[in-house]
Structures are given as C-alpha cells and as structure tokens.
Amino acid sequence: VIEVKARYGAGGYAGPFFYGPVSTSKFAVAGVSGYIECYRIEPKNNINTLLCCQGRGGSGWESIGCGYKLFGGCVNWGNILSVPAVKCIGYPTGSLYQWSSSGYVTYVPPTEAPTSADDDPITSNNPTATPTENPSTSPTTSTNQPTTASP
User: Fold this and answer.
1) Beta-carbon neighbour count of residue 104 at 10 Å?
2) pLDDT of residue 6 exceeding 90
3) HSE of 96, CA atoms in CB hemisphere, 13 A
4) Which of these, 8, 52, 65, 134, has the minimum number of CB atoms within 10 Å of its CB?
C-alpha cells in the first residue's frame, strides 16, 4: 500500500432533507489504476443532526456514510484527473460541516513466472515442485492390485 500524505479539504452545508451545494477541494488529484480516495466528514454543530454524505469518485458520486460526529469512507478513484468533492444531506435539520480527503494506492505485485523448466510445477521433474501428475512419467498398470513375480 502506498499512501498519499497530502490532505485536501473544505467546508460545506448540508440542507435539511436535501443535498446542499457541492463542496470542492482547491486541489485536483491525478489518480492511477488502483487509487482510492478517502473522505472524513465532521459536522460543525451540536444539535443532533445526522449527516449522510457522498464523495466524488472515479465513476461519479459514491456513498461515504452517515454520522452524527466524525465519520468517513473511501471511494474508488482510479486513473482519472479530477477534484475531490463532497455533498451532504441533513436529518432532521441542516448543518455546516468540514471535510478532508486523502488517498492511497493498493499495489499488488505481479506473480512471477517460472524462471526455468525446473521451477515449473507442470513440466518439472523437481521433487520440491508441486506438480499435477505427469502422465508421461507415471507408471501404467491395468489394476490397482500389487504385482507379484511368478515362480
């Protein structure tokens, strides 16, 4: 996992029973394949308003959760250039909020191909490899009974 340490943020307003205006960051994010953007939301009142928010992701708006206090969630960003943004709705009243975001990339190294024929479990005669049974080297018998020598 490679984390991007920069944080972006802004303030916004959640309308009562409707989404308030979209709040956007002052900075754009140039994502790469596997990039994830995570948002944190903090309501700025103490009147027991439930905020439910969406964050901009690579394929549009995605839910980042609901909460009365500090909460958040992550969205898939991907290989796009865009500006992080949030929109929230308040229940039962509207509320001001602050938000921030940061991102990270999940890197999964590719699996390595066998470097020689001895490392390949399919064609190897290497006893440490884990081959499936190779029909060209397995004994052929017509029955499962042990063979005995005749006198």
Assistant:
1) 17
2) no
3) 5
4) 134
Phi, psi angle pair for 2, to nearest 5° = -110, 120
- Written as one string, the DSSP assignment of 65-101 is EEESSSEEEEEE--S-EE--EEEEEEESS-EEEEEEE
When the pLDDT of each residue in the chain is averaged and rounded to a whole number, the result is 78
Residue 119: φ, ψ to 5°: -90, -10
* First vs last C-alpha separation in the chain: 70
In angstroms, the Cα distances linking 36 to 56, 109, 138 are 11, 17, 50
How far is residue 73's CA from residue 81's CA, in Å, rounded to a whole number? 20
Residue 31's nearest CA partner among 107, 99, 104 is: 104
The answer to whether 50 and 58 are in contact (CB under 8 A) is no
pTM > 0.85: yes or no? no
Residue 134 clears pLDDT 60, i.e. is over it = no
Residue type at 7? R
